[in-house]
Predict the 3D structure of the following.
Amino acid sequence: MSDAVTAHDLHKTYPGGVRALAGLTLTVRAGEVFGLLGPNGAGKSSTVKILTTLARPDSGTATVAGHDVLRHPDRVRREIGVVPQRSALDPMASGRDNLTLQARIFGIRGFRRRVDELLERFGLTEAAGRPVRGWSGGMQRRLDVVLALVHKPGVLFLDEPTTGLDPEGRAQLWTEIARLAADESMAILLTTHYLDEADRLAGRLAIVDGGRIVTEGTPAQLKGELRGDAVHLELHLAPDGPQARQAISHVAGLRDVALDGRTLSARADDGAAAVPAALAALESAGIGVATVTVARPSLDDVYLRHAGRRFSSPGVAA
Ligand SMILES: Nc1ncnc2c1ncn2[C@@H]1O[C@H](COP(=O)(O)OP(=O)(O)OP(=O)(O)O)[C@@H](O)[C@H]1O
């Protein structure tokens, strides 16, 4: 299967010295949904901007649908659909007028049928004649996706598509995205800072942190790397952290002990069996524990392992 998107060793530093990309490399295969998962500021949007020809890297190379993004940006633009983080809809125009304008820009013949089909498929036919500003956030976002699909792109970029949507709007859009990927055999590059979104939609995903990919694989592979259970112990007092970490580092059955704020995390082949010994060790060190949880590994645990902190740490938006 050919590669729909390749990025090799992308570097980008913005004026003022903010380093957004520090050697990012990724490949999206034709027909797959690839998730780029990372917290705010990780470099996801900078990657999308380069791949969609809206920004240039300082160094590195990239191709989309077989075209070099720097040498043939016009060819790339014809092959891609982009749903940007901020909606590009004209709020005063109707849904149908927004789509018609887009179809004309791309010079699509017989676009009325295509527009009607897409409106129907995304459940927007009834609202299509009304100005977009009166639509719900979820409907507007679905129209953003439709807008990106009018010219039948082979590669679709979705930049944090569900940010700001209520749970119902998110669930509906997830269903549409999953269906799109299955029906259209289109490559989709999805950026998100929602772990559950990446888990649900991406066939493969890469975790991006500090402008580079720290790990990649299928969600199941990434979680499978983490043998056994995830044990999380929340301490009463954050300053106890280092001593608590020391205290449980010798407990039999626990490994990969990490401290983030006042939460100690560890892996265990049998979490339930290891917890009593961990609690006893902490008690004899005079350290109070507020909560204990034992769970199957999640993508959050994968993130912790590779980025060295929890996804939901202060300063890391989840
Ligand atoms: N135009 C710009 N000028 C200066 N700094 C920028 C610019 N765009 C992005 N940055 C900085 O580059 C870093 C990476 O930003 P980027 O938007 O690529 O990350 P992100 O993972 O998409 O985050 P978000 O989810 O907030 O969009 C951040 O520190 C950001 O503040």
Remarks:
- Residues 14, 16, 18, 20, 38, 40-46, 193 surround adenosine-5'-triphosphate (CB under 6 Å).
- The first strand starts at residue 3 and ends at 14.
- The chain has two domains: 3-222, 227-296.
- DSSP finds eleven helices and 14 strands in the chain.
